[in-house]
Automatic annotation (TrEMBL):
<protein>
    <recommendedName>
        <fullName>GyrI-like small molecule binding domain-containing protein</fullName>
    </recommendedName>
</protein>
<feature type="domain" description="GyrI-like small molecule binding">
    <location>
        <begin position="3"/>
        <end position="63"/>
    </location>
</feature>
<dbReference type="Pfam" id="PF06445">
    <property type="entry name" value="GyrI-like"/>
</dbReference>
<dbReference type="InterPro" id="IPR029442">
    <property type="entry name" value="GyrI-like"/>
</dbReference>
<feature type="region of interest" description="Disordered">
    <location>
        <begin position="44"/>
        <end position="65"/>
    </location>
</feature>
<dbReference type="InterPro" id="IPR011256">
    <property type="entry name" value="Reg_factor_effector_dom_sf"/>
</dbReference>
Length: 65
């Protein structure tokens, strides 16, 4: 298995405003001089069918310096 460094953010506000969290993650990566090394990923630690309002999503962005 290949090791990979990622920047991540946890979004707990359903899917409606998930783009705002993605933008915060991108700003942090840029501000801290990281370089994006792959596409953003969404990880759903809870079942997305349970309730969209209480959905938790981890956004991960592969990075390197």
């Amino acid at each position: 298995m290949k090791k990979e460094e990622v920047a991540s953010i946890i979004h707990n506000d359903g899917l409606e405003n998930i783009g705002d969290s993605g933008n915060q993650l991108l700003k942090w990566v840029t501000k801290n001089n990281y370089h994006i090394s792959g596409p953003m990923r969404e990880i759903y630690p809870t079942d997305p069918n349970d309730s969209e309002k209480s959905l938790t999503v981890e956004l991960q962005l592969p990075v390197n310096q």
